[in-house]
Amino acid sequence: MRLGPAGGPLLNLGSRVARTRGALAALCGLTLLLAAGCGGAASPGGAVSSTIVIAAEPGVSDAAIYLAQKDGLFAAEGLAHVRIQAYPNQQAELNALQAGQADIAASDYGNVFYWQAQYHDLRILADGYDATAGSLEILTLPGSSIKTPADLANPNVAIGEPADDWLGPKLTSAGAPASLDAAAATQVITNFVGPGAAESMQSDGQWHPMPQQQEVSELADHKLQAILVSEPYIYQAESELGAVELLDAASGSTAGLPLLGYVAQDAWVRQNSAAVADFQAAMAKADANASLAGQVQAVLPGATHMSVQDADLITVGSYPTSTSVQDLEGVVRLMGDQHMINTNSTVIANRVSIKAMLVGSGN
User: Fold this and answer.
1) Residue 116 domain-assigned (yes or no)
2) Which domain holds residue 331?
3) Can you name the residues that pair with 264 across neighbouring β-strands?
4) Could you tell me if 334 and 114 are in contact, meaning their C-beta atoms sit under 8 angstroms apart?
5) pTM for the whole thing?
């Protein structure tokens, strides 16, 4: 659930009816630093002199790492050299971890758990971003024949979904959602059309992965009848096109769904206990700051070229200061129920065990 690549312009945004907003930011002039390198080992909590590279796809969900960098929180905790490297999508981030080109990744949980089920080499350092009401929605145009969520089950309805978190055609061909965003939306849609019809929407090819900017454009051109988007594209579609919410994908059983976390490879975690402890301490403070009004707003212009005025009007989710084992287990169950990962109990227990993946305390 990210923005397009940094530097991609948004549509010209107009005024919007006031909505209840999440916490917003006040952070300026952020520049993404590109580098390669790996963190060095030291005693837990001690200073780490080597460069720590964080792979990120700049957007609302990973805003807290930019906040931590701007406020000097990494350095204050002992990480003297932290560089944030931009990647175009989730797969590229995790590939960078595996290749040793990055130490930590700010990654969508759908990709994290799909990867973990196959390779069993990731550890969760901290939760990063959870959904709130209005942060992930299916939208339609005013006057559309799609009036209720049940209308989405019509095989002639084409639905856009974000491509940056897309896991590929293998899942789609098997009738499973190919992203955590789509899994959340499908779970909510199931309440209206039943599980069989919801699964058919995947196998019938109704979901079309593409960049969120393209989703908005194709909705405007009536090439899509509905789009699943996050911010700032919800705001963009509503303000430019008059788009209306058909379904909140983070509601009911998916309310508060964890969407992004900070992960590293198991070998790196074991060899860099100091860097891990310092990163966790810095992110706990950054997430606490992100929850305060006026602390996240300008991180988005700096990382994505969104204007400060537009950033002030979007809905953001929450930046948790602690990691809930129960909530993350809920993500794994959702992916298992949606056939995105093997539901075999041995696989889930041994490969995608949250307690085994989590570094440090959880609740």
Assistant:
1) yes
2) 52-132+256-357
3) 123
4) no
5) 0.85
